[in-house]
Design goal:
- This protein is an alpha+beta fold and 992 residues long.
- It has 7 domains: 2-45, no CATH class; 57-203; 223-308, Calcium-transporting ATPase, cytoplasmic transduction domain A; 315-394 and 667-763, no CATH class; 432-544, Calcium-transporting ATPase, cytoplasmic domain N, CATH 3.40.1110; 770-895, no CATH class; 901-991, no CATH class.
- Helices cover 45% and strands 19% of the residues.
- It has 32 helices and 37 strands.
- The strands form 8 sheets. A 7-stranded mixed sheet has the order 12-24-23-22-13-20-21, with helices on both faces. Strands 4-3-5-11-6-9 form a 6-stranded antiparallel sheet, with no helix packed on it. Strands 14-19-18-17-16-15 form a 6-stranded antiparallel sheet.
- Strand 33 (926-929) and strand 34 (932-939) form a beta hairpin.
- Helix 10 packs antiparallel against helix 11 and helix 24 (654-688) packs antiparallel against helix 25 (701-720).
- The chain is elongated and about 145 Å long.
- 41% of the residues are buried.
């Protein structure tokens, strides 16, 4: 799409068609204004490489190129995977909380990830940035633009958060056995692994296609033995010239097409005809490149160089079909052109809404932004058509069907009328003379005259006459003239003779003496030809061409599938009806001359019929041009390869069914893939943007990346189901697999959305569930309840609140019953519960904890959902048992008008928190400023940022008003990522 757009911008390029899946381009240009070297330079300007394929038969070039591509992609994938493996392990620890060494690995995860990410970012990921840069140069966007935006955002954002964490805490490692928050190196690395794997699989798919073509090319030997100047020499195949004499030994493959000129043998032509029985070859018989000599040595004369052989034509058709685009692909290209910029705009809007309107943190807003970018990657949309076509190509080849380009694919799905040419299509190739009626009983003379004439004719019926008693010496023919479909004229010994059709005999007043006999023969399905001079009828000959063995069965199948079947022929109506009746064909177009066929097709089209014409490719050019779809029964002529859209190489009528059926299944796969691709984005974008957050569903970027990869995998898998194609048979796997994949995908989406919220328990992501009114109710609840605080040996605080009360906000946080007052019960906050599960302190709700701060046994009644308030830092114990806790009350919790709380910790020499021993000086409870003493206050980090914005203070030792007193700011404390970060610290005496 991008290369096409760039090339078409040049005034000297008429047209350009690029298929990135096959890495092929067809360019039509003004050679007087621009050459291939300049075109290559133009392509290079947008950071793409190009090369001109060699003209000669280079069998290794394409395949070796694909192998190099695979090796290159393997290096990219495995280097990214190996470097990302530790980060993937860190991500697994986020999921599986009971794994060992959690507290050892997680604190160092960010540092290790940073070191490993740099080579991935600037080496493994280099190609994708170049492709994104190409789109930027064209002032557009593509899939790689989305990937580049997300990876850069993730990398820069993670670096920013790492630096910020160090400034806040003074540590480059995670605190208290936990990972550094808001670091997304591992998510970004996982996305790279997915995309690198996708590129590797894509390269392998291309290689399989090239390998198949390479196998076709290897049907010809690399060298050939030829006879020149009475000497035998061995030369490369691409050096063979027309008229060279080539010597073929037993079990050797033929290098080019030619004619046998000495000796005879049997040749296996199954690769062209699909017939397993070898064909006998005698002098003057044609032979073809790629076929295998089975028996004796023989010589043949080259009639074509390699690039012009039948095999080369077949290979070219397959290659052309692969690089050509189906019309439906242009729809995907147009959608992608606008889709990517729209996605970028939606991602920006998502960020603006969360950050500026909903007032969430930049971390939260960027997470939503990144998730939208990742989930909307249109990989699946761009894979939808090429993958189905690449698999379909070889299914067509498997059934001996060649397709010139993919436009007929969609037309074949709409066909409702099929017109069969009678001769050589519905009938066999070898008509036979059945009856001869002469006026003068001189049969030998009549046959002699007829055979002398027909040796100049190419009509299929001429062969039948020549084969009849062919031991007669032929006469000299002069002034031969043929008018196709009407008459043939010639002179023998100064006497003029004509072959007429019956209608033309009547038009020229030549009396037909035995009309009843002619009608009798025609009723039997025989074609009657009349020989006369300019005055009287001399002879009548009846020729019959037998129906193909499977003709009746195939026509009946098509009729059962609601196709309207026509037979078209230049035979008279009576003969045509006799043949049509054998095939159950009701619609007959008889006595139609070759150039009149197109008018008949046009007439059918005027009746709103979509017409496919099936013929042999001879004398049918006007009709095939007029028909909506052209299907050729291959007759070993170049006409079939050059003129028709679909070629049936096995000359088998059943392949008409196969071609139409496979067309429908291939197009259905493309449409299913398109639906998959759009479904992913329609569901994924709002989910990633947080639209469904109130329903407990959203997508974190790592799950968005996984869902994006799943969409591509499902599209490729759906395309591969074409391998199970069976003509006109309902394949259960292919029919129900898309439905099953849709169900699996929707289920995965739901699970990803729920896991993103509940497993990670990220308050910032789901806090929109808690309204301002609820937060005020929570703050009043906390302010009016007793509290106690206790510290672990590592200095982590545990806060407890007493309550038997049931509040409306409790329902919102998924707790719907009152604590039992008569037994010790505990309600845990979410993250603490996860940590306790990780340490295997309990398994499920209603489990009991032993020896809990002086209480022998206490039951876990529930786990609170996050609320984005101070409630997320406390445990609730019923009042009767609260006093038994062997810890003290050191906190003052005060409600504010905004719905938040101010939390004050009162310290003295005995209870300074371990984490702040180096910052809080209990021996300096006051400072004297301007001859006045002020109690000290130590502010928590996040609070100071808000207070500075509000200009409540600007620096250390400023005076602020807190807790209805004036305090002097003694220190701004580092972050601990515990509940201490939500407290102000003041001396005990200041509370008096």
């Amino acid at each position: 799409m991008l290369i096409e757009q760039w090339l078409k911008s040049s005034p000297w390029i008429k047209s350009a068609s690029v298929n990135l899946a096959a890495e092929k381009a067809y360019i039509e240009y003004e050679d007087s204004q621009i050459d291939l070297e300049q075109i290559q330079k133009e392509i290079k300007k947008i950071w793409y490489k190009s090369s001109i394929p060699p003209v000669e038969n280079n069998q290794d070039t394409e395949f070796s190129k694909r192998k190099k591509e695979i090796n290159y992609r393997k290096i990219k994938f495995w280097s990214a995977f190996v470097l990302s493996l530790p980060m993937i392990i860190f991500m697994v620890y986020d999921f599986v909380y009971w794994l060992p060494y959690f507290k050892i690995l997680m604190p160092i995860s960010a540092l290790i990830s940073l070191v490993l990410t740099i080579p991935i970012q600037f080496i493994s990921w280099k190609d994708f940035y170049q492709w994104a840069r190409s789109a930027l140069k064209m002032k557009t966007a593509n899939m790689y633009s989305l990937i580049a935006i997300w990876t850069l955002v993730a990398f820069i954002f993670s670096i920013y958060n790492y630096i910020n964490f160090y400034l806040q805490t003074g540590s480059i490692l995670g605190l208290d056995g936990m990972k550094i928050p808001n670091i997304y190196f591992e998510v970004w690395a996982l996305l790279i692994v997915f995309v690198s794997l996708w590129k590797l699989l894509e390269a392998k798919a291309k290689a399989k296609t090239s390998e198949a073509i390479s196998k076709l090319m290897w049907l010809t030997p690399p060298n050939a033995t030829i006879l020149r100047w009475k000497e035998t020499i061995n030369i490369p195949v691409n050096e063979i010239q027309i008229w060279d004499i080539i010597i073929i030994k037993p079990w050797e493959k033929l290098p080019v097409d030619g004619i046998v000129n000495q000796w005879n043998s049997s040749v296996d032509e199954s690769m062209l005809t699909w017939e397993s029985i070898p064909t006998e070859k005698n002098i003057w018989d044609k032979v073809f490149a790629g076929t295998l000599n089975k028996h004796w040595s023989f010589q043949f004369q080259a009639q074509k160089i390699w690039s012009e052989t039948m095999l080369a034509g077949i290979i070219k058709l397959i290659q052309d079909a692969q690089w050509s685009k189906a019309p439906i692909q242009s729809f995907a290209d147009k959608v992608s052109k606008y889709f990517v910029p729209i996605v970028i705009l939606l991602a920006i809007i998502t960020f603006v809404v969360w950050y500026f309107i909903l007032n969430k943190s930049i971390d939260t807003s960027l997470l939503y932004f990144a998730a939208v970018i990742v989930i909307a990657c249109p990989c699946a949309l761009w894979l939808a058509t090429p993958t189905a076509l690449m698999v379909g190509t070889w299914q067509w080849a498997k059934y001996g069907i060649l397709i010139k380009w993919w436009e007929p694919l969609e037309i074949a799905c709409k066909i409702n009328t099929i017109v069969f040419d009678k001769t050589w299509t519905l009938t066999k190739w070898k008509p036979e003379v059945t009856n001869i009626i002469t006026q003068n009983n001189n049969e030998k003379l009549i046959i002699n005259i007829a055979q002398s004439l027909e040796k100049y004719s190419e009509h299929p019926l001429a062969e039948a006459i020549l084969q009849y008693k062919c031991d007669i010496k032929l006469l000299d023919v002069e002034n031969f003239l043929a008018i196709p479909g009407k008459w043939v004229q010639w002179n023998i010994s100064w006497t003029k003779y004509l072959f007429w059709t019956r209608a033309l005999m009547n038009e020229n007043n030549i009396q037909i003496t035995d009309e009843e006999k002619i009608q009798e023969l025609e009723n039997q399905g025989k074609t009657v030809m009349l020989l006369s001079d300019w005055k009287i009828l001399l002879w009548m000959i009846a020729v019959a061409d037998q129906l193909k063995d499977d003709a009746e069965k195939i026509v009946q199948k098509l009729i059962n599938k609601w196709f309207e079947i026509y037979m078209i022929t230049w035979d008279n109506t009576r003969t045509a009806k006799a043949i049509a009746n054998q095939l159950w064909i009701k619609n007959i177009l008889a006595q139609v001359l070759p150039w009149e066929k197109s008018e008949k097709i046009k007439q059918l089209q005027s009746e709103w019929k979509i017409v496919a014409m099936v013929g042999d490719g001879i004398n049918d050019a006007p009709a095939l041009i007029q028909a909506d779809l052209w299907i050729a029964m291959w007759n070993w002529t170049d006409v079939a390869l050059e003129s028709w859209w679909i070629i049936l190489m096995r000359n088998n009528l059943e392949d008409v069914i196969n071609a139409i059926s496979l067309s429908k299944q291939t197009v259905n796969k493309i449409k299913q893939n398109m639906i998959f691709a759009f479904l992913y984005n329609i569901l994924g974008i709002p989910l990633a943007a947080g639209v469904f957050i109130k329903f407990g569903m959203m997508l974190k970027p790592e799950f968005a990346g996984l869902a994006m990869a799943m969409s591509s995998v499902s599209v490729v898998t759906n395309s591969l189901l074409l391998k199970f194609f069976r003509p006109w048979k309902t394949n259960i796997i292919s029919k129900f697999a898309p439905i099953i994949m849709t169900i699996i995908f929707l289920f995965a989406f739901r699970e990803f959305g729920q896991i993103s919220v509940w497993w990670f328990g990220d308050n910032t992501l789901i806090s929109s569930n808690t309204s301002i009114q609820t937060k005020k109710e929570i703050s009043n609840f906390l302010a009016n309840k007793q509290n106690k605080i206790w510290f672990t040996p590592t200095g982590i605080p545990k806060i407890f609140i007493e309550s038997d009360q049931s509040l409306s906000w409790i329902i919102l946080v998924k707790w719907v019953w009152i604590i039992n007052k008569d037994m010790p019960q505990l309600i845990l906050w979410y993250k603490e519960a996860l940590m306790m599960k990780r340490e295997k302190l309990f398994t499920n709700i209603w489990d009991s904890l032993k020896d809990f701060f002086g209480i022998d046994s206490i039951q876990i009644a529930w786990i609170l959902a996050p609320t984005d308030t101070f409630l997320d830092e406390v445990h609730i114990i019923n009042t009767k048992w609260f006093d038994l806790l062997n810890t003290k009350q050191n906190l003052s919790i005060q409600a504010t008008s905004s719905g938040m709380v101010d939390v004050f910790y009162y310290f003295d020499n005995d209870n300074v928190p371990l984490k702040f021993k180096d910052f809080i000086n209990p021996n300096k409870p006051t400072y004297t400023l301007n001859d006045k003493q002020y109690p000290t206050i130590y502010l928590w980090y996040d609070s100071t940022q808000e207070m500075k914005k509000a200009k409540e203070f600007s620096k250390k030792f400023d005076i602020i008003d807190e807790n209805w007193k004036n305090f002097t700011i003694a220190w701004i404390l580092k972050k601990t990522y515990t509940s201490l970060d939500m407290m102000h610290f003041i001396p005990k005496d200041s509370n008096k």
